[in-house]
Design brief:
Bound molecules: oxaloacetate ion, magnesium ion
Number of domains: 2
Structural class: alpha/beta
Order of helices and strands: HHEEEHEEHEEHEEEEEEEHHH
CATH topology of the largest domain: Glucose Oxidase, domain 1
Largest sheet: 9 strands, mixed
Strand content: 15-25%
CATH superfamily of the largest domain: Ribonuclease E inhibitor RraA/RraA-like
CATH class of the largest domain: Alpha Beta
Number of strands: 14
């Protein structure tokens, strides 16, 4: 296993991923052989002004048991769910393994309001959320499968944090980078962030050019993927002085 948890992250690389978006980033990871990086089936909530990008802070739920998971356990402020919310650092994304179990919520408006106040970059669960109307007003991006009113204790037992988890069928290691946009969330293994940042930026710029050509009436043949003539036109468009020499 690659222990990349200490690989430094360059803010410029994170910016490049955020600009590129999840579609381009999943393609870049696919080019490296990684096919299972997209957390499928999640919806986006909140009113963020920017795309979600940040390192994963993981929290794991296992199934609740009636004799252990009673409402009184929340009297303990050090309950792992509460502790996780109060431990996430600025710019980190709290990502919860809820086992795709949506019949009880992974969190609610108060916990996610606190997370936003701690300047977290976002919240991701493969389960559901309660108080969804309030959550949808938060300035922080939130991803979940939908709403459910029942509190998490009914079916979830928060057991540990900052260990590798599965979320929506994808392995998420603490410190991996989660990128979210309107398509959903992709998990970028931390050591690959620097590898794909520039290629992702280049793919995004080229595709913006191709998109304009197709919108202007160009057929797919010769344009998408671009043939030599289209690539020459692209280079002339991006570097006019280099193209004439
Ligand atoms: O009990 C819960 O699941 C948490 C909750 O409602 C909230 O954070 O507002
Ligand atoms: Mg609530």
């Amino acid at each position: 296993m690659t222990d990349s948890s200490t690989t430094p992250l360059d803010p410029d690389d994170l910016g490049a991923l955020a600009e590129a978006g999840t579609a381009t980033v999943t393609t870049q990871l696919f080019k490296l052989g990684l096919r299972n990086t997209f957390l499928a089936g999640l919806r986006t909530y909140g009113r963020p002004t920017r795309r979600m990008v940040g390192e994963a802070f993981t929290l794991r739920y296992i199934p609740a048991r009636e004799d252990i998971d009673v409402l009184d356990v929340f009297d303990d402020y050090d309950h792992p769910q509460r502790l996780a919310v109060e431990s996430v650092g600025p710019g980190q994304v709290l990502v919860v393994d809820s086992r795709n179990e949506g019949r009880a919520a992974s969190a609610g408006h108060i916990l996610l309001t606190r997370l936003a106040a701690r300047h977290a970059a976002g919240f991701v669960t493969d389960g559901t959320l309660r108080d969804i109307a309030g959550i949808d007003e938060l300035p922080m991006p939130v991803y979940a499968t939908g709403p459910a009113a029942m509190t998490n204790l009914a079916l979830h037992h928060a057991v540990d944090m900052q260990l590798p988890i599965g979320c929506a069928g994808v392995a998420v290691y603490p410190g991996d980078v989660l990128l979210g946009d309107a398509d959903g969330v992709v998990c970028v293994p931390r050591h690959l962030v620097a590898v794909i940042a520039n290629p992702a930026r280049e793919q995004e710029e080229l595709e913006a050019f191709l998109q304009q050509r197709v919108a202007g009436g160009a057929p797919l043949r010769g344009t998408y993927p671009p043939d030599e003539a289209t690539l020459r036109a692209y280079r002339a468009f991006t570097r006019p002085s280099a193209a004439v020499s």
